[in-house]
Amino acid sequence: MQSDAVKPVDVDPSTGEYTGRSPEGTPAGLGRPGAQPAASAEIARRGIAHALQALQAIVVRELFKFSQQTGRLVSALVRPLLWLAVFAAGFRNVFGVAIVEPYDTYIPYDVYIAPGLIGMVLLFNGMQSSLAMVYDREMGLMRLLLTAPLPRSWLLFSKLCATALLSVLQALAFVVVAMLLGTDLPLFSWAGLHALLALVCGALMLGALGLLLSVHIKQLENFAGTMNFVIFPMYFLSTALYPLWKLQESGAEWVYQAARFNPFTHAVEWIRFALYGKDPGAAPWVVLGCLVVFFVVACWGYDPQRGFGGLAKRGPGGVS
């Protein structure tokens, strides 16, 4: 039987700390200055590789699920395209858009609402991600995800990245179809890269909001009611369909103020201004600030020791 003096152990599996022995059983520190920092660096590299592997696994899983749900892509495109083809056509000659920032000339109404419809795709997919989180929790998959040997915040960030990637892909698919229908958008320029950045950040913010909402939605049956109090107010109390000055001009002061403080308004405005190479003002800071707040609070909510909402007491799918 092998003695402890020659057991090939260099890392304590219970603590992850370096034990000071080489695989041959000799003290690693003898005659080898700097061996312990090197071992710590190796452990750190393995931890980073493990975290990236988990990120890849979660993203690939979500992409695979999405590839098996063709109806999900169709519904994500039909909804904004219906607004673009019917709503915009009906209001083309009724609702004029004057020469205001970021536009340099009068524009058709379908061009104006295109960024808002892109935001609609991001909004609906972000909220649908909260439905997926509730479903995973009720089916017990959340236990497997959140008990992995990685920080909860990283696991939720991986989930958020997967949601944002799906949102961006669906939004880009909508943009392609909208351009085929004749909507003129200045995509093929350097401003298009800025618009893509705005698109990604908006998708992350709305995905983080979906994560936050999933903390409070206890059952799938409650999802529809909750979403009606989130999706429609956020969308209609924004600049997706009409500019802010129209709201103020019409005398609807409370609607104007609600739209000003709506995070979705700033996500849409960032995309709109970025498309035309104009300064979006404070919109990026509002979007990024809301992203951080939504994600931090969601991470807090998914911690059963500190969080609110009683995640640990939600039946077999909850985290114990």
List the helices and strands and how they pair.
Layout: H1 35-67, H2 70-90, H3 109-139, H4 141-146, H5 152-180, H6 190-216, H7 223-228, H8 231-236, H9 244-249, H10 253-260, H11 263-275, H12 283-301
Task: Report what the structure shows.
The chain is mainly alpha-helical and 320 residues long. The chain contains twelve helices and no strands. It has helices spanning 35-67, 70-90, 109-139, 141-146, 152-180, 190-216, 223-228, 231-236, 244-249, 253-260, 263-275, 283-301. Helix 2 (70-90) packs antiparallel against helix 3 and helix 3 (109-139) packs parallel to helix 6 (190-216).
Brief write-up:
The chain is mainly alpha-helical.
Share of helix among residues? 55-70%
What proportion strand?
Answer: under 5%
- For the terminal residues, how far apart are their CA atoms? 41 Å
Q: State mean pLDDT (0 to 100 scale).
A: 77
- What is the tally of helical segments? 12
Secondary structure: number of strands: 0
Structural class: mainly alpha
User: How many strands, what sense, and barrel or not for the largest sheet?
Assistant: none
Tell me the series of helices and strands, N- to C-terminal: HHHHHHHHHHHH
Shape: globular
